[in-house]
Amino acid sequence: MRWIDLHGAANVRDVGGLPAACGRSVAERRLVRADNLGDLAREDVATLVDGWQVRTVVDLRTPGEVDAEGPGALVDLPRVRRVHHSMLPEVGHATDASADALLTRRERLLKRYPDDIVCAMYLAYLSDRPDSVVGAFRALLADGGATLVHCAAGKDRTGVVVALALAAAGVRRDAIVADYIATGERIDAVLDRLRASPTYATDIDRIPVSAHTPRAGTMHAFLDELDRAYGGARGWLRQHGVSDGEVERLRAHLLEP
């Protein structure tokens, strides 16, 4: 895992180097994860496109967020394609950065997984928007260059898609969890960026910083539930129409030869 330091984003990293159970590792310049890309400077775009070979952007925000914040400068380039797969139900202008994204569904979420409401929210992505999860997964199969997955904070929606892909590719659980909690190293900068945006500012401080900070136990719980309910990431993908061949293509694409 390698941090990519940019002027206009705070939570950007290449997941290359994460170890797989087979003894191989994730290759660099295959999968990059990020927070909101709306403030990228010209040099940031050059770093991602020329340096990290980003050729596909997977945007997991809601249509309301995209309308308010814009798609980001990367999509202005003809050699970069953008695919949009919202992870939330298409109602209102909910965002994952807002307290409302948790609180308005709190009762239903707690029934789903009472021990950890954030894990419950992650499981809700799988049940509420399997179409988007599958679409995001398939976007990772794009030939040539790296795929960048992002939402607003680069933590929850991005964290679920990246974890699912890594688990399906056979990356070790401890490495998946370590990548997930790495956002905590930059959570203050992430929240400062969100506070500076009218889209997210009013919601950020409704819950404490500690509630925004990713916990290892949450990702362990999410992966446990994948194992229990579906037989793991591959089982969930298979149940939702992703072929074993597609999963093997992802594995071949992500892992070092």
What does this protein look like?
The protein has 257 residues and is of the alpha/beta class. It has a single domain, classed as Protein-Tyrosine Phosphatase, Chain A (Alpha-Beta Complex). It contains 14 helices and 6 strands. It has helices at 42-51, 63-69, 99-103, 106-112, 117-128, 130-139, 157-168, 173-181, 187-195, 201-204, 209-212, 216-230, 233-239, 244-254, and strands at 2-3, 13-14, 31-34, 54-59, 81-84, 146-150. Strands 1-2-3-6-4-5 form a 6-stranded mixed sheet. Helix 4 packs across helix 5 (117-128) and helix 8 (173-181) packs across helix 12 (216-230). The radius of gyration is 17 Å and the shape is globular. The two termini are 18 Å apart. The model has no long low-confidence stretch (mean pLDDT 91).
Low-confidence stretches: none
Query: Going by CATH, what is the homologous superfamily?
Result: Protein tyrosine phosphatase superfamily
Main pleated-sheet profile: 6 strands, mixed
Tally of domains: 1
Tell me the series of helices and strands, N- to C-terminal: EEEHEHEHHHHEHHHHHHHH
Spatial arrangement of strands, main beta sheet: 1-2-3-6-4-5
Q: How many beta-strand elements?
A: 6
Q: Roughly how many Å is the radius of gyration?
A: 17 Å
Number of continuous helical runs: 14
Class by SSE composition? alpha/beta
Q: What is the CATH class name?
A: Alpha Beta
Question: What share of the residues does DSSP label as strand, in percent?
Answer: 5-15%
Question: The CATH topology is what?
Answer: Protein-Tyrosine Phosphatase, Chain A
Percent in helix: 40-55%
User: In the CATH hierarchy, what is the architecture at level 2?
Assistant: Alpha-Beta Complex
For the termini, the CA-CA separation is 18 Å
Q: Given the C-alpha coordinates, what overall shape results?
A: globular
pLDDT average, as an integer?
Answer: 91
